[in-house]
Design a protein that fits this description.
By secondary structure, the chain is an alpha/beta fold. The chain contains 20 helices and 16 strands. The longest helix is centred in the N-terminal third of the chain and has 19 residues. The C terminus is likely disordered. The structure holds pyridoxal-5'-phosphate.
């Protein structure tokens, strides 16, 4: 399988190169040249299989030519063996047409583990093949940081440096990062805001000499391999509820549009998807787009579902590529205009075509809290605020052709104990494996918001790659 950029102006790459590159050189996002196709018979054959086996069937065509089948199989078995629930992504029935897919059985209790646990292992495997090491840097306002750290801890070929704004993440979020004491994990509490953290990460990527010397890489949500890994659980849920003979709708609490785009991908591969329902909080750029056909940037205000507090949904560009019939030049023009003016529109016909598949609903914090209380009362499920937006959006969706809808439970309620307790009076408990989180030792360095100091810190702490050091130091000295 080969991959092309949504902006049509970057080299076509193999899977291992796309994995390490993240963003394409033309600023676009990578996509497979064509979607692998699954026949009804092949989909039916997935029913009842363990999660790792479905993952193998779904992922194999995407990595063909880059990762040997036996290696892929071993990596997938190892990845999902570490999840707490035997089903990995279990389904629970909420009412006669609504199911909940629990995606919080990984090490950091959010759905990001389902992709990142695989990504860390794929990085290590590909880097070993290529004889390289990377330095992963990232900025986090909470959730992504811990999932990335858990994915990279103890990996031979990776050093990870994660910046968070000092004092501005919750204690659970901070401890999930800082109590990982592996020698290749480096937590930095930056004296600044989340935006300062992001700006410093960007500045380090833009310093090309530093970028090359450190072999910088990222595992943020635009990495193709994360989408690929997320496609798997849509197949798992679909076949459990009767695919290919019954179409299923999915309701997805959305921010960067990565998770719901993976559902769209599953549909492109042959899974019958009745409808895709986008759930938003007050930061409703996506909901406004699906209502109007115009994507317009607004401000960001903090909510009780912080992982969806986004200004721009970066993965939407992948859908736009299809909306424009895979015309990369047009995507490039539209994205350039979007950056300048803060808005773009699709044609009425394109909008209508999208609306056949997509619908979107928005909920403010008090509606989200009311949904948490209602679900607890009516079905005994304690939901986190993000998951509650998913179930609320599923209930708001009244198209008669939907016989079954799967709402995604994207995080464990104990990740957001204050908001959940305020909504319904019940304080969610951390699962047993994290019960001692508050007693664990923390390791973290506080640094000023200063690029040169950050770069020195990273140079000093990362492990020197022996096979590259010789050739690189000459050039750098
Ligand atoms: C990341 C995240 C989201 C948003 O997912 P996208 O793929 O960015 O749309 C929603 N809920 C939770 C709990 C998350 O961690």
């Amino acid at each position: 399988m080969r991959y092309l950029s949504t902006r049509g102006d970057a080299p076509v790459l193999a899977f291992d190169e796309v994995l390490l590159a993240g963003l394409a050189r033309d600023g676009g996002l990578y996509l497979p040249e064509s979607w692998p196709q699954f026949s009804p018979g092949e989909i039916r054959a997935l029913a009842g299989k363990p999660y790792a086996e479905v993952a193998f069937a779904v992922i194999r065509p995407f990595v063909a030519g880059a990762i040997a089948e036996a290696d892929l199989k071993r990596i997938l078995d190892e990845t999902y063996a570490g999840f707490e629930h035997a089903a990995v992504a279990p389904l629970k029935q909420l009412d006669s047409r609504t199911w909940l897919m629990e995606l919080f059985h990984g090490p950091t209790l959010a759905f990001k583990d389902y992709a990142l646990q695989l990504l860390g292992r794929l990085f290590d495997h590909v880097l070993r093949q290529r004889g390289e090491r990377v330095t992963i840097i990232g900025a986090t306002s909470g959730d992504t940081g811990s999932a990335a750290i858990e994915a990279c801890r103890d990996r031979d070929r990776i050093d990870i440096f994660m910046l968070h704004p000092r004092g501005r993440v919750t204690e659970v979020q901070r401890r999930q990062m800082t109590t990982v004491l592996a020698s290749n994990v480096h937590n930095i509490a930056l004296e600044g805001t989340f935006d300062d953290c992001q700006d410093q990460v960007k500045a380090m990527f833009n310093d090309l000499a530093f970028r090359d010397a450190m072999n910088l890489s990222a595992v943020n949500s635009i990495n193709w391999a994360r989408i690929m890994a997320q496609i798997v659980y849509y197949f798992v849920a679909g076949v459990a509820l009767g695919a290919p003979d019954r179409a299923v709708a999915f309701s997805v609490p959305s921010g960067n549009f990565g998770n719901i785009y993976a559902a769209y991908g599953a549909g492109r591969m042959g899974l019958p998807v009745a409808q895709l329902i986008v759930g938003s909080n007050r930061n409703d750029i996506l909901t406004r787009f699906f209502d109007s056909g115009t994507m317009a940037v607004g401000g960001v205000s903090p909510t009780i579902s912080p992982s969806m507090d986004i200004q721009i949904s970066s993965n939407f560009e992948r859908l736009l590529f299809d909306v424009f019939q895979r015309d990369g030049t047009k995507v490039k023009q539209v994205m350039a205009g979007f950056r300048k003016s803060g808005s773009f529109a699709v044609s009425a016909e394109e909008h209508q075509r999208l609306r056949r598949l997509f619908d979107a609903h928005r909920f403010d914090d008090s509606e989200t809290a009311a949904e948490i209380a209602a679900r607890l009362q009516e079905s005994g499920e304690l939901l986190d605020p993000h998951s509650a937006i998913g179930t609320a959006a599923a209930r708001a969706e009244t198209r008669p052709e939907i016989a079954a809808v799967v709402a995604l439970a994207c995080a464990h309620p104990a990740k957001f104990p204050e908001a959940v307790e305020q909504a319904c009076g019940v304080r969610p408990e951390l699962p047993a494996r994290l019960a001692d989180l508050y007693e664990r030792e923390e390791r973290c360095s506080t640094l000023p918001n200063d690029l040169a100091i950050l770069q020195d810190f990273i140079r000093d702490r990362r492990q020197d790659p022996p096979q590259r050091a010789a050739s690189r130091t000459k050039g750098a000295a």
